[in-house]
Specification:
- The protein is α+β, with helices and mostly antiparallel strands.
- The chain has a single domain, classed as Hotdog Thioesterase (Thiol Ester Dehydrase, Chain A, Roll).
- Helix content is 23%, strand content 38%.
- Strands 1, 2, 3, 4, 5 and 6 form a six-stranded antiparallel β-sheet that branches.
- The protein is elongated, with a radius of gyration of 16 Å.
């Protein structure tokens, strides 16, 4: 299955004093791709809150590879990986329309039980139970 992806256009207010996308905006691009990916699987913000759960970001890293400038259109993919334990990963690639990779984003995530304020065990199992389209998450 091809990775989930979203498209965004670079807006003028996302630029820094050098005329390229501010570093913090890349984190927002990644968040947009991750939340859209989860929503497409049926694990939207509203549904998670309704169930007393939330998705938390435990660690994030961005590798800046090429500039993005105002007017660039980019595709941001989202790839979920599950292993043992309470955490899982969501990685993204930010790619310009000309195919050039502008950034790579790596995140470690968890599913938070809002009542206990603890990460749930086996997040893949929990998300599979919640999702209306678990295959979108590779489950």
């Amino acid at each position: 299955m091809a990775p989930f992806s979203v498209r965004v256009g670079v807006r003028s207010y996302e630029l820094d004093m050098n005329g390229h996308v501010n570093h913090a905006v890349y984190h927002q691009f990644g968040e947009h791709a991750r939340s859209s990916h989860l929503a497409a699987a049926g694990c939207s913000f509203g549904r998670m809150v309704e169930l007393g759960l939330g998705i938390v970001l435990l660690e994030t890293r961005v590798r800046f590879l090429r500039e993005l400038r105002q007017g660039d259109e980019v595709e941001i993919d989202s790839r979920v990986g599950f292993g043992a334990g309470r955490a899982f990963t969501i990685d993204s690639t930010v790619r310009r329309d000309d195919g050039v990779v502008a950034a790579e984003i790596s995140c470690v995530m968890g599913v938070l039980d809002q009542g206990t304020r603890r990460l749930v065990h086996a997040p893949a199992d929990r998300l599979r139970e919640i999702a209306t389209a678990p295959e979108v998450l590779g489950l």
